[in-house]
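[audit] Reproducing an earlier prediction to check determinism. Same input, same settings, fresh worker. If the C-alpha cells differ from the archived copy the diff job will pick it up downstream; this log only records the rerun itself.
[audit] input (93 residues):
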Amino acid sequence: MQQAILEAAPHLRQEVKWGNLCFVNDRDNVMAIVLHKANAHLQVFNGVLLMGEFPELEGAGRGMRHIKTRYRIPVNGQLVKELTQACLRAWGR
C-alpha cells in the first residue's frame, strides 16, 4: 500500500500519527495505513467525498472511509493509486 500511494503521489509526506503511518499533503492528513490483527485498513480521511466513485470504501461517520485488505491477499495497487489520486483531487475542490 505504501509503495502504491507514493508512486501515485510522491510529494506526500509520511508521518507516524496515532501509531499509524499517515500520508500528509501540506498540513492535511490524506490517508493512513492502519494495521489490525487479520487485515490492514487504508483509511481515506475525505473518503465520504469518494463513495460514488469507489464503492469499495467502507465505514460510516462524518468523513473517513477505509478499504480492508487481508494480509494473505495481494494489495490491489492500481486501486490504491487511483484512490490516492482521487483523494488529492477531492482536497482541491
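[audit] rerun output stored. Observation attached for the diff report: The first helix runs from residue 2 to 8.
[audit] end
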